[in-house]
Design a protein that fits this description.
Structural class of chain B: mainly alpha
Number of helices of chain A: 16
Oligomer: heterodimer
Distance between the termini of chain A: 8 Å
Low-confidence stretches of chain B: 1-15, 587-606
Mean pLDDT of chain B: 84
Largest sheet of chain B: 2 strands, antiparallel
Strand order of the largest sheet of chain B: 1-2
Mean pLDDT of chain A: 86
Number of strands of chain B: 4
CATH architecture of the largest domain in chain B: Orthogonal Bundle
Low-confidence stretches of chain A: 1-9
Radius of gyration of chain A: 22 Å
Strand order of the largest sheet of chain A: 1-4
CATH class of the largest domain in chain B: Mainly Alpha
Strand content of chain B: under 5%
CATH topology of chain A: ABC transporter involved in vitamin B12 uptake, BtuC
Order of helices and strands of chain A: HHHHHHHEHEEHHHHEHHHH
Structural class of chain A: mainly alpha
CATH architecture of chain A: Orthogonal Bundle
CATH class of chain A: Mainly Alpha
């Protein structure tokens, strides 16, 4: 990152020119897409829309609101997972590639527990809320355990080794967990029991007058509420408690933190544990929202959550959450608001590509993320 | 390592049983055994015989663990300047106790499986598992047998420490030889038809007497000193210099080339197919070795170049490429398509390489992974369906036609020869590149980018070149792959492929051509590729798990790989070198030269 800044001062090489071109191309494509979208909204028969896509239809306000809500609730989950990436990156300076699997384990625990509870008649019946709380607690516990175990077995022995070694190890851990789950539970998709009626029902909010009224499915609302509370809890933990202070100190400088009497090992374990708990909760929310989980569920959300962490600025907790929400929204909106007006067929298939392009764009244009990185002095190098 | 240091004090204080250590290690053993049992390896692998009627691969999947744990639990870490205590009966008891604790885990599992039904989430919680664990002899026998078996094996593992080096080597050689003959059964019977009835049973697997003879021969071989003689010859070869060495090397290469030409002629189709697959992955691994091993760039989207090579070839040769290609767009013979693939992959290397090159190493890994996914998603998308047929893929890729002969998937031998031709080119290219100015620049960048830049290396150009060279080697592989399979689908280019190639490079030894060859033969040949079966076809379900476990284990215990690159292993073990030097009182240690470092093999834990 820093070398890129340095290079600006010196002479421009071919690569620099290419990168500038690439930045302009990406931003230009986004701008043209947005203009085309707005034009299409105003006049669906404009010549550009006719040329790109003769059956172009403007999106209705309802559709856009629906997309935003979907994006926000997905983004909230990405944000919750991103917190774990961000904290671990802040403290240890490496990408825990297997963090997505921790999330998946949470979702899997939820699948097992919720189905057992449903068999006992508790899930859809009167005791839905206690059941969900119990499931969430169990999922968070399992996810925490997995994250801590991972740290103990695979990452702690590698502390201080060259940077890429723990990253490669975490790829191995991710691969191992994925395939272990396939072997233990079978390869098929696992379904959650149906959510009760009152949760699925759409709710209408018109607090800001009729123009801003929107309908939200209860499940998505639940996701948003739980995610906000978890985030608030984490913020309190990191910023206001003594353990949180220790975590921030370790992230700043491990050696000096240990001289100040902080147990570095314990703090790192805590970091993994807290990140794991957040991922576990995200896993349950995922299960409630999509009602299906497979062993590879963790892979893409994991990578996207990392993207979210980078977008918000690695090491920055608020940034991670904001990055998650913006990534989720961008992913939901971009296919229909950018790609379709540009005449891309089947734009929703390219959702994942949009997420990765956003990562590349952020790293090209503002590598420190939207809200700035918070890394220790040695990691910034 | 850290735990072993602490435990050393306990075992040094006498041969008293260290209960805590036994319980800890035993619990880990028990959990591992239960995990393997519930992952379904024993039941799934049971049909494959190792020693006919005595030992199946299923039992082997459990039984190797107590031996390993017995060996590990009684292993001493001898520190420089401290006297090692003599290992004795106490260690054997420790090993046995650990094994018993581990075996108890299986007994408990057996009772639980017998009693409760958890088949709903756990697919392998089945009567077959009970049947397997009780040897079909009733529950009581199973519950008693497992602790006993594991205890005996644990004691065996521990007692290996008591043997002197030669005897230990003999025992390990015997076990290794039997396993080798069992695993390579199809290969060996293909090569030497008469051995089929002589050694192997009708359902596969060695006959017990054959196993005994093989073990005996292996022991005799170790004790006869033939091994030392071979080592001597090897040493002589390494000691050669100048023209003599060149001549010897030429003879060696010639001999291996002749062997590689002859072997596919006598083997059956399955083996030929397998060798062709190994070759295709070898090509990929050689390319990734340049990117990861030499330049130290962790490219997780390497499969993108494989895909570009495959799709370019398919589009240029197939009759049913997408309908949107313009009229004038040519259909070409395979080798023209190959040239086009190389050019396209080179361009893809530049396009993917340029934006990521200045990123931090770990960001680069994720971004390249993103690029790999983007390229696959583009091939899969409706948007470009008119060009690449989306999920249906391009199905009618003709065989590669060379006039005199053609290379088709139906004739795996021809594919093998073609692959070997390109592998030879790639190996030569990698070998020359490693010693070139560019290669040294790569290695300098791998070791420290800032320093390399300060030394006047144009790091941007060097890294871009690594991307391009890697991409070109992958495109060879892609072009051959599409001609071999005859069809190209987006699902052939999952991220999984990148990761498997990465495992091959890492297990073999990053930055070492020989290591990459060994890695692809051992992993792709024995375990199999992402979709291609290996020699152990029964492993197809379990190989990805094993790949993951191998990757973790290698990174923790032997990051330099099976066949380490001398310079790379010194980088990875720098701390240990410095410490050793300090203990021995040597100050000046930093002699960097091209001699094969003796330290590489000494320091690496066996």
């Amino acid at each position: 990152m820093t070398t890129a800044v340095k290079a600006k001062g010196s002479k421009k090489t071919g690569v620099d020119k290419f990168l500038t071109l690439l930045r302009f191309l990406l931003i230009g494509a986004i701008a043209i897409g947005l203009i085309a979208f707005v034009w299409q909204q105003i006049d669906p028969n404009n010549p550009f829309a006719r040329w790109r896509n003769p059956d172009a239809q403007p999106l209705t306000a309802e559709q856009i609101k629906g997309l935003v809500v979907t994006g926000l609730s997905q983004g909230a989950m990405y944000g919750l997972i991103a917190l774990g990436y961000s904290m671990v990156y802040g403290v240890l300076g490496f990408i825990n590639f297997a963090h997505g699997e921790v999330f998946m384990l949470g979702a899997f625990t939820g699948f097992v527990t919720s189905n057992k509870l449903a068999d006992a008649g508790l899930w859809e019946g009167g005791a839905f809320i206690p059941s969900v709380i119990m499931t969430a607690v169990l999922a968070a516990l399992i996810a925490t355990g997995a994250a801590v175990l991972m740290e103990r077995v695979a990452y702690r022995p590698l502390r201080g080794s060259p940077r890429l070694i723990p990253l490669i190890t975490s790829i191995g851990v991710s691969f191992f967990i994925q395939n272990a789950v396939i072997l233990l539970f079978g390869p098929g998709a696992k379904g959650y029991p149906p959510n009760p009626e009152w949760l699925q029902k759409k709710r209408r909010f018109d607090l800001l007058g009729d123009a801003f009224a929107f309908e939200v499915e209860g499940t998505k609302l639940l996701v948003l509420v739980v995610a906000s509370f978890s985030m608030a809890g984490l913020w309190y933990f990191v910023e206001r408690t003594k353990t949180g202070k220790a975590m921030r100190a370790v992230a700043e400088d491990k050696e000096i933190a240990s001289l100040m009497g902080i147990n570095v090992n314990k703090t790192i374990v805590t970091t993994f544990a807290v990140g794991g708990a957040m991922a576990g909760i995200a896993g349950i929310l995922w299960g409630l929202l999509f009602r299906s989980v497979i062993a590879t569920t963790g892979f893409l959300p994991g990578i996207k959550a990392f993207t979210a962490a980078v977008v918000g600025g690695v090491g920055n907790l608020g940034g991670a959450m904001a990055g998650g929400v913006s990534l989720g929204t961008a992913e939901a909106l971009a296919p229909l608001m950018l790609l379709e007006p540009l005449g891309v067929a089947g734009p929703t298939q390219l959702r994942d590509a949009v997420a990765f392009l956003l990562l590349i764009l952020v790293l090209l244009v503002k590598p420190t993320g939207l809200f700035g990185e918070r890394l220790s002095s040695e990691d910034r190098a | 390592m850290t735990t072993a240091l602490g435990n050393n004090a306990a075992s040094a204080s006498g041969s008293a049983l260290d209960t805590r250590k036994v319980l800890n290690v035993g619990a880990v053993l028990a959990i591992s055994l239960v995990f393997i049992a519930l992952a379904g390896l024993p039941v799934g692998l049971d049909p494959r015989q190792v020693v006919n009627g005595i030992l199946s691969l299923g039992y082997l999947s459990l039984l190797w663990l107590p031996i390993m744990f017995g060996w590990t639990v009684s292993k001493q870490v001898v520190l420089e300047g401290m006297t090692a205590t003599k290992q004795g009966v106490g260690d054997v008891i420790t090993g046995a106790a650990t094994g018993v604790v581990g075996g108890l885990g299986l007994s408990v599992l057996l009772l639980l499986v017998n009693q409760f039904d958890l088949r709903d989430p756990l697919v392998n919680w089945s009567p077959q598992l009970v049947d397997f664990l009780t040897f079909s002899q009733g529950i009581g026998l199973g519950v008693i047998a497992w602790p006993v078996i594991c205890g005996v094996l644990g004691a065996f593992g521990a007692s290996l420490h008591l043997l002197d080096a030669t005897a230990r080597r003999a025992v390990l050689a015997a076990i290794g030889a039997v396993l080798f003959f069992a695993i390579f059964e199809t290969f060996i019977t293909d090569l030497f038809d008469f051995l089929d009835d002589l050694l192997y049973g009708p359902r596969g697997g060695l006959e017990w007497y054959a196993a005994l003879v093989i073990a005996g021969l292996a022991v005799a071989y170790t004790l006869s000193g033939a091994r030392e003689k071979i080592a001597e010859v090897k040493g002589d070869y390494h000691a050669l210099t100048g023209e003599a060495k060149t001549r010897q090397t030429a003879i060696l290469i010639g001999l291996s080339a002749v062997a590689l030409i002859i072997i596919p002629m006598v083997t059956g189709k399955i083996t030929q197919e397998l060798m062709a697959n190994v070759g295709i992955f070898l090509l990929l691994a050689l390319g990734l070795n340049i990117v990861v091993g030499l330049a130290g760039i962790l490219d997780l989207g390497y499969v993108a170049f494989f895909a570009v090579g495959g799709y370019t070839t398919a589009v240029l040769t197939a009759s049913n490429r997408g309908p949107d290609w313009p009229e004038w767009f040519p259909t070409t013979p395979w080798f023209v398509a190959l040239i086009a693939s190389v050019i396209m992959a080179g361009i893809a290397g530049l396009i993917i390489g340029a934006p990521v090159i200045r990123m931090r190493g770990d960001y680069l890994a994720i971004v390249t992974l993103g690029f790999g996914e983007i390229i696959r998603l583009l091939f899969l998308s409706d948007w470009l369906k008119g060009y690449f047929n989306g999920a249906q893929g391009i199905t009618q890729v003709p065989p590669a036609d060379f006039g005199l002969f053609e290379v088709a998937g139906t004739n795996p031998r021809s594919v093998f020869y073609l692959v070997m031709f390109f592998a030879a080119i790639s190996i030569y290219a990698s070998w020359r590149l490693e010693r070139s100015r560019l290669g040294r620049a790569w290695m300098a960048i791998r070791e420290d980018e800032s320093v390399a830049e300060a030394m006047g290396i144009n790091t941007v150009n060097a890294k871009l070149m690594a991307f391009v060279v890697g991409a070109v080697l992958a495109s060879f592989s892609g072009a051959i792959f599409s001609a071999k399979v005859g069809s190209i689908f987006p699902t052939s280019f999952l991220i999984l492929v990148s990761i498997i190639i990465l495992v091959v490079v890492i297990v073999g030894g990053m930055g070492n051509i020989m290591g990459v060859i060994v890695g692809s033969v051992v992993l792709i040949g024995v375990l199999g590729g992402p979709k291609q079966p290996g020699l152990l076809q029964e492993f197809s379900q379990y190989k990805l798990l094993i790949y993951g476990a191998l990757l973790i284990w290698m990174m923790l215990k032997r990051p330099e790989g099976l066949v380490p690159n001398a310079r790379r292993s010194r980088e990875l073990h720098q701390d240990e070198f410095l410490q050793d030097a300090w203990l021995k009182g040597e100050v000046d240690t930093d002699e960097d030269d091209d001699n094969p470092a003796p330290g590489g093999s000494q320091v690496a834990p066996a």
